[in-house]
Amino acid sequence: MIDTHCHLYFDAYDADRDAMLERARSAGVRGFVCVGIDPRSNGQALTLAQAHPDMIATAGLHPHSAHEATEELVGEVEAQIASGHYRAVGEIGLDYYKSQAGPEAQRPLFERLIAGAAARGLPVIVHSREALEDTRGCLTTAGNGRVRGVMHCYSYDVRAMRAFLDLGMHISFACNTTYPKAVHLSEAVAYVPEDRFVIETDSPYLPPRSLRGQRNEPAHLTELVAFIASRRGQSEQEVAEASERNARRLFAWERSK
Ligand SMILES: [Zn+2]
Ligand SMILES: [Zn+2]
Predict the structure, then answer these.
(1) Which among 44, 52, 252, 253 has the fewest CB atoms less than 10 Å away?
(2) pLDDT tens track for 40-93
(3) d(Cα 78, Cα 225) in Å, to the nearest integer?
(4) Where are the domains of the chain?
(5) How far is the CA of 239 from the centre of ligand 2 (A)?
(6) 201 CA distance to ligand 2 centroid (A)?
């Protein structure tokens, strides 16, 4: 398995980071995508990835930070993207549910970073919450038909999923897919094509059903895989292998970096 979205630099792991990574490896996690959200965490993600052969880093600017995205800050992120050290641009996106910035502030930032990714041939990692139409619009126009990437912590329904698949995006399911109320996600999991889905924990957030209220960590992907397997009528092995294959193709990631 590959955890395609985790924030392992957070201080939630300062006390047991190495043990946490070992638990994940013992559980079958063979790769970690450590996702940055601003210049500082992009740097932290890279430092971690350079210390672990089974980890890659990405550089992004989270829509929650859109209200403080000065030209200088955005320029810093663009320089990180241009450095050649990062394997994707993200997380970036639109969040009309939680962000302090309005749509007018979020959209141009998102489009600019999509264009930067497309120009460098890097995949995007997209955070999208209650912003379905605009997310689709930005990916279509700014990506100019060349964008590829992943809808992280997928939150929409099957119909919207088809539209993102048509745009060339992959769909990433997080552990909230296992929650009893997430009927739309359990449907999406059942219908997603075998070669277009990946999995993530978004650690330390969103633990699976059996661990709600606790800190999440990549080892808990096993509960998500079991759930997806039951919904798709496949074995856990098949789900783990397909999602890993898809993640390695998406991030152009060979077995040993
Ligand atoms: Zn996110
Ligand atoms: Zn995240």
Answers:
(1) 252
(2) 999 999 999 999 999 999 999 999 999 999 999 999 999 999 999 999 999 999
(3) 35
(4) 2-250
(5) 22
(6) 9
Q: What is the pLDDT of residues 175-221, one digit of tens each?
A: 999 999 999 999 999 999 999 999 999 999 999 999 999 999 999 99
Q: Which ranges of 148-235 does DSSP label H, i.e. alpha helix?
A: 158-166, 183-191, 221-232
Q: What is the pLDDT of residue 146?
A: 79
Can you tell me the distance from the alpha carbon of 59 to that of 118, in angstroms, rounded to the nearest whole number?
14
Residue 255 has pLDDT above 90, yes or no: no
- In terms of Cβ atoms closer than 10 Å to its own Cβ (0-12, 13-18, 19+), residue 87 is buried
Ligand 2 centroid–CA 142 distance in Å is 22
Place of tokens 């079958």: 28
User: Any residues with CB less than 8 A from the CB of 46 and at least 6 apart, and which?
Assistant: 36, 57, 59, 80, 85, 86
Q: How does DSSP assign 44-87, residue by residue?
A: HHHHHHHH-TTEEEEB---GGGGGG--HHHHHHHHHHHHTS--S
In this structure, is the dihedral angle defined by the CA atoms of residues 62, 68, 73 and 75, taken in order, positive or negative? positive
Ligand 1 mean position, distance from CA 176 (Å): 13
Cα 143 to averaged position of ligand 1 atoms, centre (Å): 20
**Rounded average pLDDT over 151-168:** 96
pLDDT tens digits along 131-140: 999 999 999 9
The whole-model pTM stands at 0.97
CA 152 to chain centre: 4
What's the CATH code, domain 2-250?
A: 3.20.20.140
The answer to whether 125 touches 58, Cβ cutoff 8 Å, is yes
pLDDT at residue 256, rounded to an integer: 58
